[in-house]
Design goal:
The protein has 140 residues and is mostly helical. It is built from five helices and no strands. 12% of the residues are buried. This is Delta-6 fatty acid desaturase.
Length: 140
């Protein structure tokens, strides 16, 4: 039964995320937007958004319900309404990730050239040729 999902677990996980989103909203509503409530709300929202990302990932893999239509409906709800993203966009990028995992210029998960570059020669070459705007030759 390794591939049998516990649907109650996923339902409670979704309820947990919705509860955290509600707690964050009610914190600001009840206590106002001073520093302490804002920090509390930011921590609660960051946690719920991270959890929602992984939950929609499981639904995006069609691994929760036996019918893919139900997986798509819940994934669209989570990523569309709770995270404000597009399930089609996420699926397109995630399929590319599974086709060519960790292949530079193919896997969108490792295309982070505006943040860092990989390897021994790439940081120095990018800086010398001024291909991007960060000092890549100093990254560690």
């Amino acid at each position: 039964n390794l591939f049998k999902s516990n649907q109650l677990f996923f339902l409670l996980h979704l309820a947990h995320i919705i509860a955290m989103e509600s707690i964050a909203w009610f914190t600001i509503f009840y206590f106002g937007n001073s520093w302490i409530p804002t920090i509390i709300m930011a921590v609660v929202l960051a946690t719920s958004q991270a959890q929602a990302g992984w939950l929609q990932h499981d639904y995006g893999h069609l691994s929760v319900y036996k019918k893919s239509m139900w997986n798509h409906i819940v994934q669209n709800f989570i990523i569309g309404y709770l995270k404000g993203g597009s399930a089609n966009w996420w699926n397109h990028r995630h399929f590319q990730h599974h086709i060519k995992p960790n292949v530079f210029h193919k896997d969108p998960d490792v295309s982070m050239l505006h943040v860092f570059v990989l390897g021994e020669w790439q940081p120095t070459e990018y800086r010398k040729k001024k291909l991007k705007y960060l000092p890549y030759n100093h990254q560690h």
